[in-house]
Amino acid sequence: MTKQELYTLLEENKQQFFDASDAIWDAPELSLSEHKATEIYEKMLAALGFEVTSGIAGMKTAFSGSYGSGKPVIGILGEYDALAYLSQAAGATEPCPLTEGAAGHGCGHNLLGMGSLAAAWAVKKYLEAKGPGSGTVIFYGCPGEEGGAGKAFMAREGMFYGLDAALCWHPGSVNEIFTGTNNTSMQVEYTFHGLSAHAAGNPHQGRSALDAVELMNLGVQFLREHMPRTDCLHYAITNAGGVSPNVVQPKATVLYMVRSNNVPNTKALLARVDNIAKGAALMTDTTISRRFIDGTADLVPNEPIEKALYANFLDAPAPVYTEEELAWAAEIKKTFPPMDHMPGKGATDDPAIRAKVAELTENGTRPMNDFVMPFYHSNTQSPGSTDVADVSWQTPTSQISAATWPSGIPGHSWQIVSAGKTSIAHKGMLYAAQVLAATAVDLLEDGSLRAAARAEFEKATAAGYICPIEPDAVPVPVEEMM
Ligand SMILES: [Zn+2]
Fold it and tell me: Is 283 in the same domain as 302?
């Protein structure tokens, strides 16, 4: 099967994947509670002829679908969790929640998972045509990307070591290779336990858990001046102890996310935060319980696979937008101030690419970035985190971004939810599936590409993977912390 035939196969069979993506958009579920999505995927995988394994790595909403036999083995990663409080009507150009306070697909993961599944299915058709023993494709259903770090829990069990390569994509505003690395992150929940008492009548008998949370936060503010510039700390008070000021709050919880450039440094930073929590408990005569929630490693980029992805980006048929689609994108774009920077990592890091992107986007004014960004590879560190990183320590891994929403729109916004079922989103998802499928075929066919990817991977991961998830940690659904 030629690549052109692969692209056509996906084009002709796209509707089932669009429909399933829309169904997942219609039923947004928070991290590690993606039960409806899991049902949709597992049914679809079985119907498409994959061998399904459910409930992997101790998570009910983690699964895999495998097809084929023998080496090479190519993994394709999918995600399907939504974000809290982002409910929004599809296609609306103003904030318009469908259900006030409900979740919404503000990171496009309805598209992410289905684009990946479409790619895995096309690779399956390719392997089918070649016959038994020509290789294996595995689709991984990875829950909890927005919280819970499903892939890191899967990596804790060594699930990706057997692959020759893994591919992924993320919906975005640009068609670009994901390159560079990013921060490691760890989340820990601290719950303080005190004694309730009448705040006016018996204050001396009360011990305030809320005071402990406040003192812990104050201690962390002082820590900020004395940590490396690579480090950052974020927190959310998930239980402030209730709504009664006249009660000494007996229980309060704060969730911390700590980040640094690698796993050992993040562990060291977390140990300092742990000490501050202990200090706050001592100061307030309360006790503390600590629960490790999740962690993610720093991404290991892989230039040989990035180059293969790039060649296929240029080879596959890029989306062409209608006047109507462009007019809608322009309306959405107006809901944010004009862009003060050029989109894409290359444009951020490299002045020559920035100038080129300024030209291609007409200084960031075009509503859709309907072109492929210039090729750019780097090892520079982004501040955010992803659990794809944990896969990248176990097998050569690369990702792309495909344009599924208008230019200049930040992630995790109502605008992204609004875009998630549009024809623009569908076109971007199909394009991503075509690029991933073509690259998987390159990896299956081209031994020198696999060898180059492996050599770079071995060099970059010589220090060995340190799983950021603590050994006794269990996956915690985000709903449980709300
Ligand atoms: Zn995302």
Answer: no
Distance 391 CA to ligand 1 centre (A): 16
Cα 105 to ligand 1 centroid, rounded to whole Å: 9
Do residues 131 and 258 both lie within one domain?
no
Rounded distance from Cα 108 to ligand 1 centre (Å): 7
**Distance (Å) from CA 222 to ligand 1 centroid:** 32
| pLDDT of 21 | 98
% residues pLDDT > 90 (the chain):
98
Dist. CA 286 → ligand 1 center (Å): 38
Distance 92 CA to ligand 1 centre (A): 21
**25 and 13 within one domain:** yes
- 211-213-214 Cα angle (round to 5): 65
* Mean pLDDT value of segment 398-405: 98
Q: Indicate if 308 and 367 belong to the same structural domain.
A: yes
Q: What is the mean pLDDT of residues 85-93?
A: 96
- What CATH number should be reported for the domain holding residue 286? 3.30.70.360
Closest CA to 431 of 322, 305, 312, 319: 319
CA of 400 to the centre of ligand 1 (A): 12
Ligand 1: centre distance to CA 321 (Å):
24
171 C-alpha vs ligand 1 centroid, how far in Å? 8
Q: What's the domain range around 309?
A: 3-182+298-460
Look-up of token digits 């794809």: 388
pTM here? 0.96
Ligand 1 centroid to Cα of residue 110, in Å, is: 10
Query: What was the pLDDT predicted at 461?
Result: 98
pLDDT at 339: 87
Amino acid at 59: M
Q: What is the pLDDT of residues 105-139, one digit of tens each?
A: 999 999 999 999 999 999 999 999 999 999 999 99
Nearest to 88 by CA among 26, 29, 37, 32: 26
Distances (CA, A) of 238 to 35, 131, 212, 374: 24, 54, 14, 43
